[in-house]
Amino acid sequence: LSGNAPIGVFDSGVGGLTVLAALRRALPNEDFIYLGDTARLPYGTKSAQTVLRYSLQCAQALADRGIELLVVACNTASASSIEALQCRYPQLPVIGVIEPGAQAAVAASRSQRIAVIATEGTITGGAYPAAIRRLSAAAQVTSLACSLFGAMAEEGWTCGAIAESVARRYLEPLFEGPGEVPDTLVLGCTHFPLLAGAIRSALPSSVQLVDSAQVTAAAVAQRWPPPPSARRGSVRFLATDGAARFARVGGQFLGMPIASDAVEIIDL
Ligand code: DGL
Hints:
The protein has about 270 residues and is α/β, with parallel strands linked by helices. It has helices spanning about 15-25, 50-65, 75-90, 100-110, 120-125, 125-135, 145-155, 160-170, 195-200, 210-225, 245-255; strands at about 5-10, 30-35, 70, 95, 115-120, 140-145, 185, 210, 235-240, 265. The strands form 2 sheets. A 6-stranded parallel β-sheet has the order 4-3-1-2-9-10, with helices on both faces. Helix 3 (about 75-90) links the parallel strand 3 (about 70) and strand 4. It is globular and about 55 Å long. The mean pLDDT is about 95. It binds D-glutamic acid (DGL). D-glutamic acid binds near residues 42, 74, 150, 189 and 191.
């Protein structure tokens, strides 16, 4: 990174703000432009072709604003679009959340039995098992779409009895014997880190959680270390609809308040 141009980050909506929060912790001096395609979310229930089309438009909007690195902060968009984006922008480094998540899972798992939870689109496309098996041919990957978690995270139902009971309903079958059960669970959706406590409560204590947002931020900082600087980086927020909702719900995902007049609405 040169430190002279912002890092572009996009997601279907507010979920990618968990990735942005991790990126800002890892790279506090960098400027970021975050684009949430709130007019067309969710991506997780749409076909791979549609998500690819939307992702190309999001990337173009950020490329037009002079970014020097593109982070695809959405698992569903990463699953269907990362290669196409890398081809379309050969001069622009592009990183998604799936490869770093897969690497962290393979590194964390002793048994190479790995479970992945994500949106329907991410699970159906098989991008996580494919990325994990490229790194560890013997890995056994179990995948499960946990669609309710996304809505619960946006509703703020992230802990307590309801969250824990939904987590048990989804996850207990994945971690029940007979035979060896996974020792690692990948949170393969931007919304799921908000539910990490409830998810953990439904798992055997030996299971390791891999948060693809955290590991992606660490991978960016390691691969493209910025020059030293004393200044505090800025964030510019773009969305395709609903500045007030973006600010209200997005604040939970970013972990700090967002003013609705700080959100610029754009057309793609
Ligand atoms: N950002 C999406 C993901 O990580 C979740 C929300 C959606 O389905 O659009 O897969």
